[in-house]
């Protein structure tokens, strides 16, 4: 992808732990059909741990060498991603929006989480019981191409991300980008940047992307090369829930 290869650094981080993450953890292994989340997906806030993770992410950003520091910061418009970005940037002197010359945090809806449609908020048990035909379609088509009613497939994410990264070529040629986003977006960015197959990316997706983890690529002069994936080493003191 030309728009991705035009960057010097591409850094992606997942938002800190949210109250939605905690809700899904609470019903794991139970017979619950719903996670019990009252907010719409875009309005789910960070948990206390998530805010601590975002602050720790900010300290990691503050310690980056000058030639690795972000020149552009873009977040999903969802509350948990915007708050993660704001908390992290406030911990840096070079990027804090309130400081002279600080970075301007942009939001872009193409970085939002995957739309679940009618399945939003349901557990796997809930999908099987309430939408058995959809569960059968998912089994038949596979996760990559299955699109729930009113929602998106993983392939749909690739479409909007191709558009997003092409625009980065015009907006930030040679730039160092930090995107604060969601686990599915990080996985599908690997699919695009690393020219992976459906089988490759669905195998990668089996490993949860941890909250506030860091995934990085660096230009070798002609294309981006992977530096790290799902790195949580900076989170040792606050934990990195992975749901």
Automatic annotation (TrEMBL):
The reply to whether ATP-binding figures as a keyword in the UniProt entry is no
Which keywords, in A-to-Z order, does the entry hold? Glycolysis, Isomerase
Q: Which PROSITE patterns match?
A: PG_MUTASE
Q: Which SUPFAM superfamilies match?
A: Phosphoglycerate mutase-like (SSF53254)
User: Entry's CDD domains?
Assistant: HP_PGM_like
Q: Which PANTHER family match?
A: BROAD-SPECIFICITY PHOSPHATASE YOR283W-RELATED (PTHR48100), HISTIDINE PHOSPHATASE FAMILY PROTEIN-RELATED (PTHR48100:SF1)
Name of protein: Histidine phosphatase family protein
């Amino acid at each position: 992808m030309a728009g991705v290869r035009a960057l010097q650094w591409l850094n992606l981080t997942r938002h800190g732990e949210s109250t939605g993450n905690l809700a899904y953890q609470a019903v794991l292994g139970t017979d619950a059909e719903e996670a019990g989340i009252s907010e719409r997906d875009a309005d789910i806030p960070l948990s206390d741990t998530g805010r601590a993770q975002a602050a720790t992410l900010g300290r990691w950003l503050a310690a980056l060498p000058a030639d690795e520091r972000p020149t552009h910061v873009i977040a999903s418009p969802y509350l948990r991603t915007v708050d993660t970005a704001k908390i992290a940037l406030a911990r840096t002197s070079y990027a804090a929006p309130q400081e002279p010359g600080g970075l301007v945090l942009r939001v872009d809806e193409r970085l939002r989480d995957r739309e679940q449609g009618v399945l939003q908020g349901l557990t796997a048990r809930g999908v099987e019981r309430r939408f058995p035909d959809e569960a059968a379609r998912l089994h038949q088509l596979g996760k990559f191409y299955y699109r729930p009613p009113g929602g998106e497939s993983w392939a749909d994410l690739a479409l909007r991300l191709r558009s997003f990264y092409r625009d980065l070529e015009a907006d930030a040629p040679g730039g160092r980008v930090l995107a604060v986003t969601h686990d599915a977006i990080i996985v599908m960015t690997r699919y695009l940047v690393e020219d992976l197959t459906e089988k490759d990316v669905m195998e990668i997706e089996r490993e949860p992307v941890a909250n506030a983890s860091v995934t990085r690529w660096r230009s070798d002069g002609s294309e981006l090369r992977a530096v790290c994936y799902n790195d949580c080493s900076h989170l040792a003191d606050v934990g990195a829930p992975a749901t």
